[in-house]
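2024-03-11 09:14:02 INFO worker-7 job=invfold-0412 stage=load source=structure_tokens
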């Protein structure tokens, strides 16, 4: 378990972060934003590819429902971010030394990642969202960071159509990206990655949901204080109640029941 320790200068240093936490069959890799960006931008020799996934309440519910989702999260090359204050609270309840610094939701670091990629000459490919949103986002990124090598393609294809998926993989690999960001929503993006990650040549694949849509302005970002307070869901629910009502009212109850039953069995 991580713990506070006294630095050589006599002050209290940051907690030692646990490289991996296993709980209820899930894997978590809590990181601060700075350490996450360092992980993404490490120099990687061939054969050392990674996938960046996320865990929030909706994600844990998808984990329970989809085999390929579970298989992706089980891979040793998959790093599962803590993407939601309820996950921080859950881990703390079971004795793990995590706090708000470890809630690295994509909205809080995605633009930093794009800026760092542009500054470091890393090519980025974005897969997901509507074609119009991708076009708007690419234009905005190139205006903001002149010379940035970034490209993308829409995410409106059938992930059960192998020919369509392999055509997208060929487009991605043709760009030779250092980083691929996939924003098709849970669980579609995770299932796509589980099936085709080994064919994708990018050293880093990040499963980012609506991150690029927030960057383009296609979706309005909730106030950032709400995320740190664990209330970001309320803003999203108010903005889109028809689509998100089940996610934020039914799924947490079903997930809590499943976890309670698992805890009783153990």
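2024-03-11 09:14:09 INFO worker-7 stage=emit residues=266
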């Amino acid at each position: 378990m991580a713990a506070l320790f006294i630095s050589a200068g006599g002050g209290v240093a940051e907690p030692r972060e646990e490289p991996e936490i296993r709980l209820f069959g899930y894997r978590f890799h809590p990181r601060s934003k700075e350490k996450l960006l360092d992980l993404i931008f490490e120099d990687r020799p061939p054969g050392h590819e990674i996938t960046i996934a996320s865990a929030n309440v909706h994600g844990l519910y998808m984990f329970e429902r989809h085999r390929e989702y579970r298989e992706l999260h089980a891979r040793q090359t998959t790093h599962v971010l803590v993407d939601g204050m309820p996950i921080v609270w859950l881990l703390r309840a079971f004795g793990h030394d995590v706090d708000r610094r470890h809630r690295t939701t994509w909205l809080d670091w995605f633009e930093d990642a794009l800026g760092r990629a542009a500054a470091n000459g890393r090519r980025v490919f974005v897969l997901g969202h509507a074609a119009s949103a991708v076009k708007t986002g690419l234009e905005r990124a190139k205006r903001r960071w002149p010379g940035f090598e970034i490209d993308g393609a829409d995410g409106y294809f059938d992930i059960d159509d192998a020919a369509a998926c392999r055509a997208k993989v060929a487009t991605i690999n043709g760009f030779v990206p250092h980083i691929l960001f996939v924003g098709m929503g849970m669980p579609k993006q995770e299932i796509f990655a589980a099936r085709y990650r080994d064919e994708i040549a990018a050293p880093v694949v990040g499963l980012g949901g609506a991150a690029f849509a927030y960057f383009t302005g296609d979706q309005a970002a909730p106030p950032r204080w709400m995320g740190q307070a664990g209330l970001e869901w309320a803003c999203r629910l108010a903005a889109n109640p028809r689509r998100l009502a089940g996610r934020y009212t039914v799924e947490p109850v079903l997930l809590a029941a499943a976890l309670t039953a698992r805890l009783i069995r153990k």
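2024-03-11 09:14:09 INFO worker-7 stage=report msg="The chain has one domain: 21-217."
2024-03-11 09:14:10 INFO worker-7 job finished
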